[in-house]
Amino acid sequence: LVTATDVVKYWQNVFETNGIPEARESSEYILAFVLGAKTFQSLNSKSLHTPLTAVQQEQIQQLSNKRLERMPVQYVLGEWDFQDLTLKMRPPVFIPRPETEDLVSLVVQEESQKCQKNSGLCFPVSVPHPVILEIGCGSGAIALSLLCKLPQSRVIAVDKEKAAVDLTRENAHRLQLQERIHILHHDVSYNSAKQLLLWGPTDFIVSNPPYVFHEDMASLDAEILRYEDLDALDGGDDGMRVIKTILALAPFLLKDSGSVFLEVDPKHPNMVENWLQAHPNLLLVLRAVHKDFCGK
Asked: For residue 281, is pLDDT > 70?
């Protein structure tokens, strides 16, 4: 008889032998998923020592074989959690990283500070209904988290890849947020302002754009290179190909009090500041730089 504990050990060993990164975590995630749990740690002692059925063992075998091909665990399971949401995942749509949760928190923080400022005024101010534009929505992780955390908000989510647009749409429906999001299949360029002003000027532009320097692409993990959409990562020679487009569009898209939130490489803040100084007509100011929880 084979128990959950036996299976985790077995596959951890197979993964390690085959040089699969995060062998133990991979094995635990797959097992927990098959047993209908979020994490291995959340399984009780009874679940861990109850013999697995033939069907469960077969399912673990199939998922583990995919992981042996260096498929990211998020794609192997077909779903992943971001903030407090469980989102469907499908290759090659970009997998949201935990650091990007910090980006969402910063936007939420900024919006709640705006609300506090307004509520301090003597005359009544109508409840704000922020309009947020997300460029490069991928699975919808950022857009849908913001809709959940800011119940008055509406989001326009844009991606140039049809697979991403379809996945964001599917995730929005699963979370019943489809009424407050407009999803566009569109490749953002310097001429995009008209298409993006569907609901008038926006309060926030948010993006986790491709920001990897082209020369660093080859050294990314096999999981990324084999399965993820590399266009969602490759930011060109200076890593700023899409960042520059977003900044150039921002003055045409934002309200006067609007802000842009970008996730970038640690080398980028100085480069962005220099670029903005070279383009004073955009009237944009680099207001703050935050490190993520990894200190980057």
From this structure: yes
